[in-house]
Amino acid sequence: MYLASDNQLEDDVAIHFEQHLEKCPHCAGRFQAVVHVLTLVRKRCRRVPAPQGLIVRIRQHIRIVEEGKS
Ligand SMILES: [Zn+2]
Question: pTM for the full model?
């Protein structure tokens, strides 16, 4: 997992991310677009922080989806 390997997410959160991205094409598409850009940028610069805005948005969506189901 790209973000987890950067230690920017705790393990349990990363697992939630992966599970959610598998189920949610909306977040998966967003996430993969960002990962694609980060991968390109990282070929030139070593350290590129993961966009916190995206992480926050997906976290919120995970919460909404999980609350909606339970
Ligand atoms: Zn989602």
Answer: 0.59
Task: Report the domain count for the chain.
Answer: 1
Render pLDDT for 8-63 as a digit per residue (tens, 0 to 9): 556 667 778 888 999 999 999 998 888 888 888 878 776 767 777 888 888 889 88
- For ligand 1, an ion, list residues with CB under 5 A: 24, 26-27, 61
Residue 36 CA to ligand 1 center (angstroms) comes to 18
Rg, C-alpha atoms of the chain: 12
24 CA to centre of ligand 1 in angstroms: 5
Which domain covers residue 48, as residue numbers?
2-69
- CA angle 5/11/9 to nearest 5° reads 60
